[in-house]
Design goal:
Blueprint (H helix, E strand, L loop, with lengths): L1 H18 L10 H25 L2 H8 L3 H8 L2 H14 L9 H8 L1 H12 L3 H13 L8 H24 L9 H21 L5 H12 L1 H4 L13
Helix pairs in contact: 1-9, 2-3, 2-5, 2-8, 3-4, 6-7, 7-11, 8-10, 9-10, 10-11
């Protein structure tokens, strides 16, 4: 019961944070917001191609055909730009629209929200490649993004644990399963299948993730619609 109460409290915090999200920039700041978005797009391309150490702010300015001063004006440092790229990629869809994964988990269940996120990710392999490259690079404690990835995985595990516990209260997941163990298994499987898809584009990421849920959590997926074949990585 204590675990259930903790899960409900965690989800309450998630909804509260979601409600506090600020709407898009308007009026005289629109051009600046668009320029920032363009810089993030160019930075994602450069970092996904060359990695953090191999890509420079000058490469990004050339990609966008703007001055180096403009890049620094908007983001300050190379690491601040990298962090902004990662944060945006973690919370948006291919069209840079917000995707509230935690709210989707609460509304439809972890399995449904995960498969929905996987399906949308298929349309932006460059960002999956960016995460794969930087996650590997940041395994070195001295890498600038090391702390960001450590914090991200800890936060994701905590949020997924709460979401799985909430699923248990609704009968979506068996109460005999450990939510934290499920969260770590899901994160590891998800990362591994994404990497295999990037290396071998003939692999079907959606079907592989569906197979994981069918094996690990059949009760969570039995009422979900079938998953269509996904596109290959570009």
């Amino acid at each position: 019961m204590r675990r259930v109460i903790q899960a409900l409290c965690q989800l309450s915090k998630v909804f509260s944070m979601s409600e506090q999200k600020i709407a898009g920039v308007r009026g005289p700041y629109a051009k600046s917001a668009q320029r920032s978005s363009d810089i993030l797009d160019a930075a994602a391309t450069v970092f996904a191609t060359h990695g953090y150490h191999g890509g420079s702010l000058r490469d990004i300015s050339r990609e966008l055909n703007v001055s180096l001063t403009s890049i620094v004006h908007h983001f300050g440092t190379k690491y601040e730009l990298l962090e902004a790229v990662l944060e945006r990629a973690d919370r948006t869809t291919p069209g840079n629209e917000e995707f509230d994964f935690d709210a989707a988990c609460a509304e439809r269940g972890v399995a449904s929200a995960t498969l929905e996120r996987v399906q949308s990710s298929l349309e932006r392999p460059e960002l999956l490649r960016l995460f794969a490259i930087l996650a590997a690079e940041s395994s070195a404690p001295t890498h600038p993004a090391h702390d960001w990835f450590v914090a991200r995985y800890r936060r994701k595990a905590k949020e997924l644990s709460a979401a799985f516990a909430y699923d248990q209260t609704l009968g979506r997941v068996s109460p005999h399963r450990d939510p934290y163990t499920l969260s770590r298994l899901l994160l590891g499987t998800w990362d591994g299948i994404q990497l295999q898809w990037l290396i071998d584009p003939t692999a079907d990421m959606s079907r592989s993730m569906t197979a994981f849920f069918e094996w690990a959590l059949p009760e969570a997926i039995k009422n979900l619609p079938s998953i269509p074949d996904g596109p290959v990585a570009r």
